[in-house]
Amino acid sequence: MNRNARLKPVIVYFFGGGFHFLSINAIRTQVFDGSHLADICDCTVVTVQYRLGAFGFLFTGTERAPGNQGVHDMILSLHWIKENIERFGGDPRNVTVFGQSAGSMSISTMIISPLAKGLFHRAIMRSGSINEFIAYSPENALKKTKDFGKRMKCPIHDMDLMVDCLQNKTVEELTFKTISINIPRIFEGRKIIIMYGDKGGLLPERPSKMLEKGIYNPVDLIAGYTYGELGTITAFIIPEILNDFRKFTYDDMKRLYIKVFKAAQAPSKLTRHAFNFYTRNLPENPSNLVFRRVIVDTLSDGIMICPTYLFAQKYALTLAKNASNTNRVYSYRFDHFSPYMLLFLCFPWMGPCHATDVPIGFGLAAHPDLFSFAFKPKDKKISTQLLQTWANFAKYGRPGTYLDDLEWPEFRSADKRVGDNKTITVWKQMIINQPYRITINANLDRCKFWEPILFPYGPDLDDDENDKQ
């Protein structure tokens, strides 16, 4: 490295895969090829492999398997980058972490974890955040660990004995038992995944409690999600919603709600409340498309959309309470649907589903070496402009105006209320589609429904409104 050369911003990518599968070498490294972003950004791009399944997230409630080992791998990689990246031309004082799905959820934990203090300066979260639904609780983590130990024919009445037993298994045995091709069970929280309340100090308390206490690392943030996040997963759980020849009734919808909420380990009381909330404005005889949309929206909101939305909202409000804060928070919703998404069993009526935006968001569509046939001109255009946006954010902490010259506003913004001209807080998001546009308070009411379940503590919108009066 020439000591006189200018150091470049660093972008560190953490891939998704439900904490159970994929790697940085997926499909000959094409999926997570950082060279496209590096070329446009003039950045140093690092992709990180971390432990998965039981290797990465086994939790016994003891130090022998403290939980979240995979996230500790990520933090260790950031320590290495801080100490060594300058030798590769990267600036250790300008590090952006970037992740999708499991990677995004892991980044949310690092934003509020004391263990990641000072290791990065900006973050891009795409589709996923840690939250306080039962799937991420220590109780659920311990239950899934015991289920795994039982499948491995190890004693589960004593955690030390179980760990001793697991350590005597071969790598092949452990991998075979921990790998998952049953993707819906990951989203249902029935696999060993990330958690709060671990014993390794990553998230010692509930996430919303930590934010309430002002425990966080000040960074600039972009957080967003796709419009139809769990469309494909919903169809896997209740495939009958794909039946175009059947007319669904309210009784059918109640039955499907019960089935999908039971799969997600939700209590029956929540099922009833969610059904009443999401159907409260439906017409007397809604179409099949409306029924489908409501079920997909409900599951998407509870598992992916509102965790991401509420984390960004709570984080923005927490930053705002610090008078000397200079960090910014931005948000988006990815609405662009492309025919290649059909390969993921994601249909147009669903909107872009979970992870179907990855080829566009990480640059594969901008430079499709292997899959040029799959992408349309709009895909390539949006992909190129998003890479330019991520690059500008990594350099300056702002998205810039690369999306057809449209200014991307901060998530928490001030507007004048019509009538009395008072200043109120609104939540603005960039809609990534053609044409691009800005939406205001698009998911606010629906995510407020989920707030007591996902992020029950910490600052809320009502407090912010009262501060502005």
TrEMBL record:
Q: Where is the Carboxylesterase type B domain?
A: 5-419
Read off the InterPro entries from this record. Answer: AB_hydrolase_fold, AChE-related_enzymes, CarbesteraseB, Carboxylesterase_B_AS
Molecular functions per Gene Ontology: acetylcholinesterase activity
What is the native source organism of this protein?
Euroglyphus maynei
EC number(s) on record? Answer: 3.1.1.-
Lineage: superkingdom: Eukaryota
Q: What's in the keyword line of the UniProt record? A: Glycoprotein, Hydrolase, Serine esterase
PROSITE patterns linked: CARBOXYLESTERASE_B_1
User: What is this enzyme's class at the first EC digit?
Assistant: hydrolase
Q: ATP-binding as a keyword? A: no
One biological process term in Gene Ontology: acetylcholine catabolic process
The family annotation for this protein states: Belongs to the type-B carboxylesterase/lipase family.
Task: Give me the Gene Ontology terms describing cellular component.
Answer: extracellular space; plasma membrane
The organism that produces this protein has a lineage beginning with: Eukaryota, Metazoa, Ecdysozoa, Arthropoda, Chelicerata
Pfam families from the UniProt entry: COesterase (PF00135)
Q: What is the protein named?
A: Carboxylic ester hydrolase
